[in-house]
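Could you help me review a protein record that somebody else here produced? Do not assume that whoever made the record got everything right. The record follows directly below this note.
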Amino acid sequence: MLHADHTYSDHPLKGSLDGGMARGIGAELRLYGRDPDEAEAKARELGFDVLAGALDKPHGLREAYIIDQDGYLWVPGIPLPHPVT
């Protein structure tokens, strides 16, 4: 489970969030079965950072890389009918 930072506003862990560091650095939260083109469009509409737009990848998925308002990296992806060669 991931919580938004404001969830911890009255929690003992609040001090660990005050350092100004981006959250989730190094983690990719993958959403298999989520259309990356739709997710990218919605992310742009909501003002999120799109690190990489939807692309067909050699490992057989179409993916996008989206950073949310808390700094988490989300990777929606769907399988390609045929892997890129």
